[in-house]
Design goal:
Helix 5 packs parallel to helix 7 and helix 12 runs parallel beside helix 14. The chain contains 16 helices and 18 strands. It folds into 2 domains: 130 residues, Rossmann fold, CATH 3.40.50.300; 223 residues, Rossmann fold. With 430 residues, it is an alpha/beta fold. Helix content is 39%, strand content 21%.
């Protein structure tokens, strides 16, 4: 039995480089949706390799982006013509675009204080969106490291750029996708935390619907509500669970959490995933499993499940229930927040005698995200986003309080005064 056929070791999807001999050696090409480093000395062909990779994609209808830190874009265009690649023509056809970050020989680079590559990341993301790129080549990282002394910072920033270019998937809600910077990453795990009735199961339902709409298999592990209740809820929001199951794109597993120990549950879930082969897995909720074993056993269960689904490039969503109706930290949330890639908080907000719901993206590893706390309502079609809450403080801590515009202005004035007071006096010049 080959590694490809073994159920516990599924083959990694490959992307052909266009270099036939290399594709044979690499058993199909480079890992798809991954970052690959090409290393070599000056003149060994790294730039040619990078362009060839993009050319192969363009030939298959996959646009590309070339980020250059060393040679100028014009030099790359001229050099590649000898290989029969007309980069300028591809640019005009919208198949290729450059991000020219090469140094200006007339300007001396001066390193001063802390900085980041946020502006470059924005340029790269804009270029990817412009041509709907499927491949990105960066040439060369050595030129970046040689310009700056803070090597750790450069590594962190390059990792941030690489993370921002992983494949994203929809949460099932367009507005939530925008809040998350474009959706969830393919092999990430998101924690949705909130009190009873804030919309956790709805968020999970939309997440599953988003997968089914994209032709992906989805698995729902439910430990709090019965199957009939889940189907009724989904129907009320306009989603047909029974049709999804009939089409073979959804599997719903409902059971009492205390029927087995956490180790047994992990083995059972792994078996179900191996048999069904889902691209998305939702667990509603982790809080129901927390009391099945010790705190150590619970964390080991979450670590085991998270590692298992990430290894298979499955997108996961877990829910956790807060102990207080108004929010605050939940025991589950505090125990596993560091194990998840993203955290979405759902909160009740009391406003002038009326209860409203609020949502915010607290954490989005490897990506920028909306920092606002937005109001939302629940109805036919699921979650409808409203405007951000203004002049309200204490929502995340579970003690929302309305602050008048005048009070907000006074608070900021006091803050500015305090900053001025603490600012050191300028040194006299001689």
């Amino acid at each position: 039995m080959t590694n490809k056929d073994h159920p516990d070791h599924p083959a990694v999807e490959k992307l052909r480089t266009g270099i036939s001999s290399l594709d044979i050696i690499a058993k199909g090409g480079l890992p798809k949706n991954r970052t690959t480093l090409i290393s070599g000395t000056a003149g060994s062909g790294k730039t040619v390799f990078a362009v060839h990779f993009l050319a192969a994609g363009i030939a298959q209808g996959e646009p590309g982006v070339f980020v250059t830190f060393e040679e100028s874009a014009e030099d790359v265009r001229k050099n590649m013509k000898s290989f029969g690649w007309d980069l300028a023509a591809w640019e005009q056809e919208g198949k290729l675009t450059f991000v020219d970050a090469s140094p200006d020989p007339d300007i001396e680079t001066v390193e001063a204080g802390g900085f980041d590559l946020g502006a470059l990341l924005a340029r790269v993301q804009n270029a990817v969106n412009k041509v709907k790129a499927r491949r990105v080549s960066v040439d060369s990282l050595g030129a970046v490291f040689s310009q700056f002394t803070d090597q750790a910072m450069v590594r962190g920033e390059l990792f941030r750029i690489a993370s921002a270019l992983n494949v994203r998937i929809s949460s099932g809600n367009k507005d939530l996708d925008e809040m998350c910077g474009g959706g969830f990453f393919r092999d990430s795990v998101t924690l949705v935390s909130g009190a009873t009735g804030t919309g956790k199961t709805l968020t999970v339902t939309q997440f599953l619907q988003g997968g089914v709409a994209n032709g992906e298999k989805c698995l729902l592990l439910a430990f709090e509500e019965s199957r009939d209740q889940l189907v009724r809820n989904a129907t009320g929001w306009g989603f047909d669970f029974e049709k999804m199951e009939h089409d073979g794109l959804l599997r719903v597993v409902c059971d009492y959490p205390d029927l087995s120990g956490l180790e047994d549950w992990l083995v059972t879930i792994q078996k179900i995933i191996n048999e069904f082969g889902p691209q998305r897995v939702a667990l509603d909720s982790l809080s129901a499993l927390e009391n099945v074993g010790t705190l150590k056993a619970f964390r080991e269960f979450v670590i085991g499940l998270t590692s298992f689904i990430k290894h298979r490039e499955i997108t996961g969503m877990f829910t956790a229930t807060t102990g207080s109706l108004m929010g605050g930290d939940s025991i589950t949330e505090s125990n596993i927040s560091t194990l998840t890639d993203s955290i979405v908080l759902l909160r009740y907000v009391e406003m002038f005698g009326e209860m409203k719901r609020g949502i915010t993206v607290l954490k989005m590893r490897g990506s920028g995200h909306d920092k606002a706390i937005r109001e939302f309502t629940i109805g036919k079609g699921g979650m409808q986003m409203g405007r951000p809450f203004r002049n309200v403080t204490g929502i995340i801590g579970g003690a929302p309080m309305h602050v008048s515009p005048g009070d907000v202005e006074r608070i900021w004035m006091q803050y500015d005064k305090e900053v001025d007071r603490r600012r050191p006096e300028p040194r006299p010049t001689s």
